[in-house]
Amino acid sequence: MWAYGGVCVVGELGSGGRDLTAPQRWEPDDQMVAAALSSPKSFRKMTELSAADRAWLVAGLTVAGVTAQDIADRTGCSLRLVRAIRAEEITQMAVLLHTETRALGDELRAEHIEHVATQHQLADVRADNDRLRMQLSQLVDAHVAGTLSVFPRCGHPKVKYNVYEHGGRKFCRECARLRKQERRKSKRLAAVS
Predict the structure, then answer these.
(1) C-alpha to C-alpha distance for 75 and 78, rounded to whole angstroms
(2) What is d(CA 99, CA 86) in angstroms, rounded to the nearest whole number?
(3) CA-based angle 45:22:60, to the nearest 5?
(4) Which of 113, 159, 153 is nearest to 135 (CA)?
(5) Alpha-carbon distance 90 to 51, whole Å?
(6) 137-160 residue pLDDT tens
(7) Which helix (H) or strand (E) holds 30?
(8) How far apart are CA 97 and CA 101, in angstroms?
(9) pLDDT for 104-135, tens place per residue?
(10) pTM for the predicted model, two decimal places
(11) Which residues, 6 or more positions from 139, have their beta carbon under 8 angstroms from its beta carbon?
(12) Cα separation of 128 and 56, whole Å?
């Protein structure tokens, strides 16, 4: 075994890189904090964890609002050890990382909600556009055929899309739509007030 550039190499030079050992990398365990929060006592003691895992766990619990005494009780260690871990630089970096991750998650959720709302608005506008195109087509066809008549009370055209029957009488669909729209607005205003 020999070292080259800080990487330990095992085997011969002509091994093709099969015997290279990569330096150990630590990655945070996102479920560690959730597991510690879900149970009153941790299944692993704080002293069994690596320094990076300790910092990550203490930072995550601190950001979640858990007190140092509660962290000590949950992880089966002393309050002094928790305070010492909180004072380490790696823990401060982990706190910053937890805070930023939480903020980015909140921002992502807000953006997703806005995106879904925009998609619904777009679908509504497309449906209105299709409805208006169909109505315009019917109006033009009725005008060209010379059969365009209007409701005497409101002046809206009496064409297929705008007429509905109830009890043997014909009514204006546009006027009914406007009445419903006004009722919805008044209900919203009453609910807000």
Answers:
(1) 9
(2) 15
(3) 35
(4) 159
(5) 9
(6) 888 887 788 777 888 888 888 888
(7) helix 30-38
(8) 6
(9) 999 999 999 999 999 999 999 999 999 889 88
(10) 0.56
(11) 148, 157, 159
(12) 52
The mean per-residue pLDDT over the stretch 17-42 comes to 79
160, 138 Cβ separation under 8 angstroms? yes
Q: How far apart are CA 102 and CA 59, in angstroms?
A: 13
User: Taking the chain, what is the end-to-end CA distance rounded to the nearest angstrom?
Assistant: 78
For the chain, give the number of residues.
193
Q: What are the distances in angstroms from CA 115 to CA 109, 118, 124?
A: 10, 5, 14
On whether the CB atoms of residues 9 and 1 are closer than 8 A, the answer is: yes
| Number of CB atoms found within 10 A of residue 57's CB | 27
Each residue of 67-97: pLDDT tens digit? 999 999 988 899 999 999 999 999 999 999 9
Within 10 A of 54 (CB to CB), how many other CB atoms are there? 23
